[in-house]
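Worked problem 6 (solution included).
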Amino acid sequence: MERSEASGAVEKDAGGRRALVLLSGGLDSTTLLHIARSEGFTPVALVFRYGQRHAIEVERATRIALGLGLDARVVDIDLRSVGGSALTSQRIEVPKDRAEGEIGSHGIPPTYVPARNTIFLAYALAWAEVLGISDIYIGVNALDYSGYPDCRPEYIEAFERLGNLASRAATEGGARLSIRAPLISKSKAEIIRWGASLGVDYARTWSCYDPHPGGDAGPVACGRCDSCILRRKGFREAGIQDPTRYAGGAPEE
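Solution. The predicted structure is:
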């Protein structure tokens, strides 16, 4: 498992109010990064390269962090060796063209990555303890989501309890771990409006699970996977133009 710093060395917190933010480069996590800043934290971004077919999101995430002058770490945990997901295996197809009402209402889709949030949060817990950070932000959403079991409020509450039982910082040092999930009950439209009010540049973010090459201009979003469908729906309902380049067309009005 390799680890690389996107900007500078991150040392143990010397009294500043820092928070660890899980950043994928997507709409939700980028909004989350800005929320953490608006709540008085200096975010430290944690980005995972886990063998996802949409690896472009790693590049977007690091660019977003660097553009805000923030520390970031990219961590390699290759979940292709686990398999079981359309996001980590080319042999499993990404669902396309599902009706908006079907997403999240017909069981867990093949884009679910087994134990992904548990693995990511466990790493975040370890690194936060080393840095002396007690607040971890994660952009899970239980309303406008695709049916993933590790995006539910009860999951986040359970992991927070685990973290406070399992870490030396909590059991000996008296620190109280807080897993912050401010987007968990928000619709995609509400998230977009919130982000827009904080100055999020959504043209920098990436949501698509199955990008098209796109030629010289770089990859473009398929516009047909669940993530693209929810993104388009969110911008439409928010009344804000979607700046995303989709296959076969210009940004949506």
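Discussion: Strands lie at 3-5, 18-22, 42-49, 71-76, 135-137, 178-180.
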